[in-house]
Known about the structure:
Distance between the termini: 35 Å
Order of helices and strands: HEHEEEEEEEEEEEEEHHHEEEEE
Helix content: 10-25%
Shape: globular
CATH class: Mainly Beta
Structural class: mainly beta
Strand content: over 45%
CATH topology: Porin
Number of strands: 19
Amino acid sequence: MKKGLLFFLAWLIIFLGSFAFAEEEYKFDLSEIEKKPYHFGGYVELRPVLFGLDRDASLYKLKLFNRDEGKTIEEYNGRLQLEGSLEKGIARLFVKANFDLQYSYLGWEHSEPKRMIYEGYLSLKPTPSLSFKFGKQTLLWGKGYAFNPVAFVSRPKDPDDPELAIEGYISASADYIKSFQGPLKTVSFTPVIFPVYKDVNDDFGTVNRLNFAAKLYFLFYDTDIDFLAMTGGSRTSRVGFDFSKNITTNLEIHGEFAFINNQKSRVIDSQGNISEAKFDAKSYLLGIRYLTASETTFIFEYYRNGTGFSHLEMKDYLTFIDRGYDLFLLNGNDSLLKKAASVTEGNYGRINPSKDYLYLRISQKEPFNILYFTPAITTIMNLNDRSLSLSPELLYTGIKNLEIRLKGIGLLGGRRTEFGEKQNDYRVELRVRYYF
């Protein structure tokens, strides 16, 4: 633990010392803004993390019941992200690849080869109003910042870091855009063909299915509106809509609504009985983004997860884990813990497993006239059990092509609550990212 704290203290000194770097003189070069037929760039990142373990928490007992890792564990992450594009005529080829390397108490881990390509597609634009994409692409549907209930054909964001790149899925899509005079300024239509077969999007849902999705967009009275749908069998059919509207130049409101037909639920009670059910789920989000005159940004969102578990269902799941751990301590029998683990992955263990959440992020650009410095604080509250996460961070970008972020996450909550029963009490991480 002392070694870990000394390590982070050293990085903190480097972080604070970076303010001593003088601001570089900006030079304007016309060649830099000339459009080139190719582009290549990316970043390399180092991200050490220190976790403070909660040895009394249910998820600690589930994951580390047969290990003794002490009070803290360290983790070291490295990432190389490369992206490039090549344009010729109506065609454009784009590739974004991530190479991840991690060292933790489990040893060395690296990206699976088939998961390294985050995006890789060919786009064709035969006319200014019509375009096509073929390959692996990320479809960022929805207007929410931390949550997107209408993102039917993409992986979920991490609300702790929603701006991270998301791996796409293999699909074929088109975009048709039409502009008008009057209150209705723009209409666009985006159909998507989405295959799910062995080794092709097979982590999305039921395999051997060809799925279809679509988005219809309107810019009406300066309000962005989308109508969205997906069907095909890999997941149950669903429809939704979203909107975004600037009320004033510094105040924006946004929302999403999704209806999911025949959603499946797999629930375990405190005695270990597993039941399955089908129901129609309704998920929605309402949020605002507000920028003050002093450049403080507030992002506030309420998210209703219609596919989530109730407070009682989460409590029963956590209670059963404790029963399994007590049995393991009594006679070494881990059968109940294995049963709890079987309903965790992709179910109780998914991001935001409960029903109701509040999200608030406050960031301040260059406080006290400290150039290139942005502190922020983020909180996510589970309204069903009143537990929450609290994440302060410091971001500095004053060195050319270098981004340094120091972030902590504290988890607060009582027994049998989502954040109170996480494996960790807190997490401290330093992210150093160099762009090229």
